[in-house]
């Protein structure tokens, strides 16, 4: 008897029925992200979202895309896949919020060696949780089974988001000036950057991820898998009350690469390290790896996920607003005249 196409595809290592099961398992997670503007459900060829144009005079769309990087290795080792999606969402929506825009919708892309529906469900659950945290809708995605290209038990995860903002309220840096106060917002940990170095420093494997450290109050794996903090709602709450002149999301490249991205020519960000938030994980990384302080601040967020600038007379109010949302915020420096860059003192 002649084999059907699906039989042939299965023989090639791709189980289409697993794909159908994955879709069924994730429907409830996707459903909880629905907000005003969502049209239709998952399963179509394109995710649809009606723009709230009546709420804006001159709307601007702001988009962002990113992945989780080698933090995925931690998820594989720990066999924990229900938070890595939060990281993926955070890396995208935080960038959009730094422009002063509100994320509207999100799409994910999962490439896996083999489609294990229950694992895909856990990944998407994390993505949906991140969308709920940031107030955007999960309107679509793709799960691609890459048999023969990737190991069966591994996957890669990336995402894409679109937000909207009023043109004259976007954070462009045009108002940034000498004398502005710099405010830091605490991170939840290493977030999703610098993991290639982290894995090398600790020789990450099954034994090391389960090692308990008193200074962490947790195992190394538990500390490192902590999801990236999502700052969307706190930042939008702040920008609703106080004009924010510039924002930097401290991701890969740490302070030295990311802070200058929010600066104008002839503006220097002077940050007092001792006033910034610290977490024991960074001291442990530095001590274990024998890494210089400069390289630490050039790689990691060091306990600070966001640096933003406001008029000096608005600094105290800004800190109060952020702390009221549940964040940890503090004034950590100021903008000065000088060559564009960041100075840590």
How many beta-strand segments?
Answer: 14
Number of helices: 13
Largest sheet: 6 strands, mixed
Give the integer mean of the pLDDT values. Answer: 95
Overall, the morphology is: globular
Task: Measure the end-to-end span.
Answer: 77 Å
Note the run of SSEs as H and E.
Answer: HHEEEHHEHEEEHHEEHHEHEHHEHEE
- Spans where pLDDT lies below 50 across 5 or more residues: none
Strand-residue proportion: 15-25%
Helix content: 25-40%
Gyration radius, rounded:
22 Å
Q: Strand sequence of the main sheet, in spatial order?
A: 10-12-7-13-11-14
Structural class: alpha+beta
Describe this structure in words.
This protein has 345 residues and is of the alpha+beta class. 34% of the residues lie in helices and 25% in strands. The protein contains 13 helices and 14 strands. The strands form 4 sheets. Strands 10-12-7-13-11-14 form a 6-stranded mixed β-sheet. A hairpin with a 4-residue loop joins strand 8 and strand 9. Helix 2 runs parallel beside helix 5 (117-134). The protein starts with a helix and ends with a strand. The mean pLDDT is 95.
């Amino acid at each position: 008897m002649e084999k059907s196409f699906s039989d042939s595809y299965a023989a090639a290592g791709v189980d289409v029925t697993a794909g159908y099961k994955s879709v069924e398992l994730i429907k409830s997670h996707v459903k909880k992200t629905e907000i005003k503007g969502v049209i239709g459900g998952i399963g179509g060829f394109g995710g649809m979202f009606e723009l709230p144009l009546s709420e804006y005079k001159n709307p601007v769309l702001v988009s962002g895309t990113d992945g989780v990087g080698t933090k995925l290795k931690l998820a594989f080792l720990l066999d924990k896949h229900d938070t890595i999606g939060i990281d993926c969402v955070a890396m995208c929506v935080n960038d959009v919020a730094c422009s002063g825009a509100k994320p509207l919708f999100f799409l994910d892309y999962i490439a896996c060696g083999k489609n294990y529906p229950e694992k895909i469900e856990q990944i998407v659950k994390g993505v949906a949780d991140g969308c709920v945290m940031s107030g955007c809708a999960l309107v679509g995605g793709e799960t691609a089974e890459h048999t023969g290209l990737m190991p069966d038990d591994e996957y890669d995860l990336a995402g894409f988001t679109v937000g909207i903002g009023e043109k004259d309220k976007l954070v462009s840096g045009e108002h940034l000036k000498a004398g502005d106060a710099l405010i830091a917002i605490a991170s939840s940990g290493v977030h999703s950057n610098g993991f290639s170095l982290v894995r090398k420093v600790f020789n990450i494997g099954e034994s090391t991820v389960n090692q308990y450290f008193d200074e962490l109050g947790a195992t190394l794996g538990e500390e490192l898998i902590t999801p990236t903090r999502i700052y969307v709602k706190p930042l939008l709450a702040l920008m609703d009350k106080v004009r924010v002149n510039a924002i930097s999301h401290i991701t890969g490249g740490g302070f030295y690469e990311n802070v200058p991205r929010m600066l104008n020519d002839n503006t220097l960000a002077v940050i007092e390290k001792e006033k910034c938030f610290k977490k024991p994980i960074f001291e442990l990384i530095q001590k274990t790896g024998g890494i210089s302080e400069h390289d630490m601040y050039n790689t990691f967020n060091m306990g600070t996920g966001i640096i933003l600038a406001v008029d000096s007379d608005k600094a105290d109010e800004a800190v109060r607003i952020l702390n009221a949302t549940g964040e940890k915020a503090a004034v950590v420096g100021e903008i000065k005249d000088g060559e564009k860059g960041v100075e840590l003192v």
